[in-house]
Design brief:
Blueprint (H helix, E strand, L loop, with lengths): L12 H4 L12 H16 L3 E2 L7 E2 L3 H7 L11 H5 L8
Antiparallel strand pairs: 1-2
Length: 92
């Protein structure tokens, strides 16, 4: 079921009269409650929001590291030789 979040995904500031901003003051109460659910759930899981796009959340990338103060990203190049030597737990 599609929920009211105030704008379509990927709405620009121009076409949405800035309603695409996560904390946009001009959206309705239902959309505000739905956005707050996203903020609570995704923020609570360690993700960070790009504040000009209510639908844009990051984890482990450069933006996430900048906002959280992490020393580095959570991902990057993988040394395949090392990765292949890591034991994989057997399925249960």
């Amino acid at each position: 079921m599609e929920l009211d979040l105030g704008t379509a995904i990927d709405a620009t500031p121009e076409e949405s009269a800035d309603a695409c901003f996560t904390d946009a003051p001009g959206i309705g109460g239902t959309a505000r409650r739905h956005r707050q659910i996203l903020v609570d759930a995704l923020g609570g899981a360690g993700m960070v929001n790009y504040p000009t796009e209510w639908w844009h959340w990051s984890y482990g990338d450069r933006y996430w590291a900048l906002i959280t103060g992490a020393a580095h990203t959570r991902y990057g190049p993988v040394d395949l030789a090392t990765a292949r030597s890591i034991p994989v737990p057997a399925e249960r």
